[in-house]
Amino acid sequence: MKRLVALSLILCSACAPTTIYYREGAGVAAVDRTLARCTAQAARDVPVVLETRYTPLRVVRDTFCDPDGNCTVEIDTEGGDAYDVDVNAERRTAAVNQCMARERFTPVTLPPCPPNVARAAPAGPTTTLPRLTPKSCAVSRDSGVRIVTPG
């Protein structure tokens, strides 16, 4: 699982595309080390700043009538619930991306491999990032991601 995190930002589903930091020939361990360093630096440079926000208030009007036609109106509000937002989250992500770019890693999104390609792919995760082509795809495994270039 550790290599999975280091290799990519996976969208949890086997049907979803896989985004990785890529530099041809780089080892997954190098990606892991660089990403850890960049993430730590971004956390120092762009710390979490939580801002409390509130869901919108909505006025709810209910009319209740008895069998004689006498009606009463009740007015209430819904919403106004507090939630926290890290206002620096996007800046921190940008800082990580810039740091990775300085190390010549670029984010690349690979589609999931078709089932027949996934079944034929070698076992285990990729350990060295291969040359990519338009046919390259990714197979998510418990132990990491296998990058496959069919044909």
Show unreliable segments: 4-13
Main pleated-sheet profile: 3 strands, antiparallel
SSE run: HEEHEEEEHEHEE
Number of strand segments: 9
Shape descriptor reads elongated
- Fraction of residues in helix: 25-40%
Strand content bin = 25-35%
Number of helices: 4
Cα-to-Cα separation, first versus last residue: 29 Å
Secondary structure category: alpha+beta
Q: Give me the side-by-side strand order of the main sheet.
A: 1-2-7
Mean pLDDT score, rounded?
A: 90
Radius of gyration: 25 Å
Structure description:
It is a single chain. The chain has 151 residues and is of the alpha+beta class. The chain is built from four helices and nine strands, in the order αββαββββαβαββ. Strands 1-2-7 form a three-stranded antiparallel sheet. It has a two-stranded antiparallel ribbon with strand order 3-6. A two-stranded antiparallel sheet has the order 4-5. A hairpin with a 7-residue loop joins β1 and β2. α2 crosses α3. 19% of the residues are buried. About 7% of the residues have low confidence.
